[in-house]
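Bug report

Summary: structure tokens for Sulfite efflux pump SSU1 differ between web form and batch submission.
Environment: batch mode, default settings.
Steps: 1) Submit the sequence below via batch. 2) Compare with the web form result.

Sequence submitted:
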Amino acid sequence: MGTGIVSILLNTLPYNGIWLYWISVVIFAFNVLLFASFLLITAIRYLLFPDIFSVMITHPAQSLFLGTFPMGLATIINMICFVCVPAWGEWASYLAWGLWIADAVISVMTCFTLPFIIMTRKSEIMLSSMSAAWLLPIVSCVVAAASGSIVAETLPDPQYALGTIVASYVLWGVGVPLALMIMVIYLMRLMLHKLPPKEIMVSMFLPLGPLGQGSYGIQRLGGVANKIFPKTGTLSHGAGEVFEIIGFFIGLLLWAFGLLWLFFAVASILRTRKFPFNLGWWAFTFPLGVYATSTCQLGRELPSEFFRVVGTIFSVCVVLLWVLVTWMTAKGMYDQSLFVAPCLADLRERERRKREEMQVEDI
């Protein structure tokens, strides 16, 4: 997700150049390699050790990160639309469309099933233990909706584009309101139990994800609807313009709400100052990255030099953070300090209980 959003930002910067384009292409190719490699590793892991999947899917924290899979794939789909479709032609747009359909299905599955699994777990969850990671499976629908607006714009068939737009609005309607409800609970947790532990302090940036991507997605959907609705005779004359205006208005409000959470996140980091490095540091990149895309999109819609400059500043910050976190991650992989699987503790506990039961039966 973090690497993908960096390639998107460099490709779509308001102040761009051919050298930035080729850097974005290189990072895009690197991201595809990363995604394919870790997808293969994950598949092998669960094929060789199938018991791990059951304890992972019911783990209150680790299961939430399943939502990162469709979001990571969405960044690849977007770059296919930005880079491959202009270079390779029509077939690349249908490739992106097929991948997007799969991505949307996986996003819905994670958004619907993971919260329900949390509801039906036997052990209770305390409010004090809640983290912003609860947003991860839900934001997948918001990201898929934004990605659908990009894919719809590249499809040559207006009817296919219309179906993609409608499905994207449904995904946006599922993800954004639910994410806002989770954010209310998270704000209550912060008010009652104060800031999260230092180990997960970076998760304060996660609320920027649904707000930034929700803002970007609703703006893009409105713009594409204004192009596709007249071609397909959808609704009445001028309906597309109404969707575009409403999309910009909602996008601006979500962006403004994101300013509050950006302040909370930055202020929390400055107040804490020192906190240990872990994989949670990647929460610096994607949430702030999608907030940057929303800012740049506002600059295109108005048009506004202010939003373009601020969006560029956010984008540069994301790129620098990505370089830092990538270096720290590579270092942690080398000394094996990052390889931690919390769900394995549950698996060991399950195996211990089985051994005890077998010993009792033998007696």
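Above is the batch result. After comparison, the two runs are identical; trailing whitespace caused the diff. The longest helix spans residues 158-193. The chain is about 80% helix and 0% strand.
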